Amino acid sequence: MADALKIGVAGLGTVGASLVRIIHDRQESLAVSCGRAIEITAVSARNRDKDRGLDLSGVTWFDDPVTMAKTADIDVLVELIGGAEGAARAAVEAALERGLHVVTANKALLADSGVELAAAAEEKGLLLNFEAAVAGGIPVIKAMRESLTGNTISRVYGIMNGTCNYILTRMEKEGLSFEDCLKEAQRLGYAEADPTFDIEGNDTAHKLAIMTALAFGCEISCDDIYLEGISNITQEDIRAASELGYRIKLLGVAQRTEGGIEQRVHPTMVPHDTVIAQVDGVTNAVAIESDILGDLLMVGPGAGGDATASAVLGDVADIAKSRPGTQTVAALGRPAKSLEPYRRARMRSHEGGYFIRLRVADRIGVIAAIARRMADNQISLESIVQHSTNGSDEAPTKTIIMVTHATTELSVRNAVSSMESDGYIVGKPQVIRIEKP
Ligand SMILES: NC(=O)C1=CN([C@@H]2O[C@H](COP(=O)(O)OP(=O)(O)OC[C@H]3O[C@@H](n4cnc5c(N)ncnc54)[C@H](O)[C@@H]3O)[C@@H](O)[C@H]2O)C=CC1
Ligand SMILES: N[C@@H](CC=O)C(=O)O
Ligand code: NA
């Protein structure tokens, strides 16, 4: 049997601790599958004294992951710290500089610097593997960068954040509050260290940016993503969606349009009878539409220690099975130098259906005024429903819920802003895009 593959694990939190435990428990079967043993020879985390229930005997401890990357007796750095800057980035850069393969689950880092890191790895014939960075345990990166080679991809979309899907599911099914669901997602190890990244959509944007580069062969451009999170989704929206035959999901969508590549992350209404609408809890789903294969939908665990560690382990195993000089899988599916510049399609040109919920003053002529503003902007309505009077006796209000036929983002923005200027709207209008799989 070949020499053991020596790995150094930086970060022993939710994912790192699961990975160490799994490798320890499955040493023999891994050695058989990979044709060589996988040995953890070094680890680094913030707190050496914390009891993680791990057997770290014979493993060298480093307080500083960068020192580990530069000096430890390892072939692979596994970075499970997180964050686009700081220790995670410095450790990955140091590892590549030193000629070590890298496995990371860090989508924030890849969304920020994936192209540079991919180029650095390729220059040295190293593997930069990051299956866990998108949709946790689901093998979407492997599918995109290997299995779909030769396909022209027209759209990639999906539920890519377990925390948000968990929150939306429990709010809908159990009527729980947003805050309680988020706390539970944190307790279960699904959320990011800063959960705003989850609920405001940044984490989905990081993942989408990586998927866009793989799908369309372009540079990663996370800053160009239209971004809306789920923090202003209310029980009222969830109920209204359900009455109309939809469920609300936080989707990341990247699609080729005449104007360029459209990238957007926002709460989305998906028809109740579609597979993606039925994906609940921490489960993720990624749909890839391509010309040779057709439509592919991958569904599975999107977050959590073991599910994520499974993807990390798969990446490590790929390195164990590879042989020096045969590292041919480019990190972003094609040589980093051949990636095209990202050409952004403007969000205002986005076409689709819209759900619009308005609270309006309950007075004569308001419905007619709303209908006029929609017509002024060439928006055709699929349905308009007026809900019972609310507000106070002195200032009664009612809720209007509209679903539009396909229109443009610009038309909807203009219509809503005209209605706001008309002066009968109370509070902030809610606008949710509809996606038809
Ligand atoms: N938790 C999940 O379900 C998933 C997480 N990820 C990604 O995996 C990575 C790790 O996530 P978690 O395990 O959830 O995070 P975590 O917060 O549970 O663990 C982070 C670990 O990094 C260590 N660390 C932080 N700063 C350090 C420093 N300066 N030096 C040395 N160690 C340091 C901490 O001590 C801790 O052991 C992140 O990039 C995250 O986005 C990806 C997919 C799923
Ligand atoms: N916080 C992320 C973890 C996995 O990427 C999520 O909830 O999906
Ligand atoms: Na994955």
UniProtKB/TrEMBL annotation:
The enzyme's E.C. designation: 1.1.1.3
For this protein's source organism, the top of the classification is: Bacteria, Pseudomonadati, Pseudomonadota, Alphaproteobacteria, Hyphomicrobiales
User: Which intervals hold domain ACT?
Assistant: 355-434
Q: What keywords sit in the KW lines?
A: Amino-acid biosynthesis, Methionine biosynthesis, NADP, Oxidoreductase, Threonine biosynthesis
Which species is this UniProt entry from? Answer: Martelella mangrovi
Gene3D superfamilies cross-referenced by the UniProt entry: 3.30.70.260, Dihydrodipicolinate Reductase, domain 2, NAD(P)-binding Rossmann-like Domain
What does the sequence similarity comment in the record state about its family? Answer: Belongs to the homoserine dehydrogenase family.
* Pathway(s) served: Amino-acid biosynthesis; L-methionine biosynthesis via de novo pathway; L-homoserine from L-aspartate: step 3/3; Amino-acid biosynthesis; L-threonine biosynthesis; L-threonine from L-aspartate: step 3/5
Looking up PROSITE patterns in the UniProt record yields: ACT, HOMOSER_DHGENASE
CDD domains noted in UniProt: ACT_HSDH-Hom (cd04881)
Please report the name of this protein according to its UniProt entry.
Homoserine dehydrogenase
Could you say which enzyme class this protein belongs to? oxidoreductase
A Pfam short name: ACT
GO terms, molecular function: homoserine dehydrogenase activity
Xref: InterPro entries: ACT-like_dom_sf, ACT_dom, Asp/hSer_DH_NAD-bd, HDH, HDH_cat, HDH_CS, NAD(P)-bd_dom_sf
Domain of life here? Answer: Bacteria
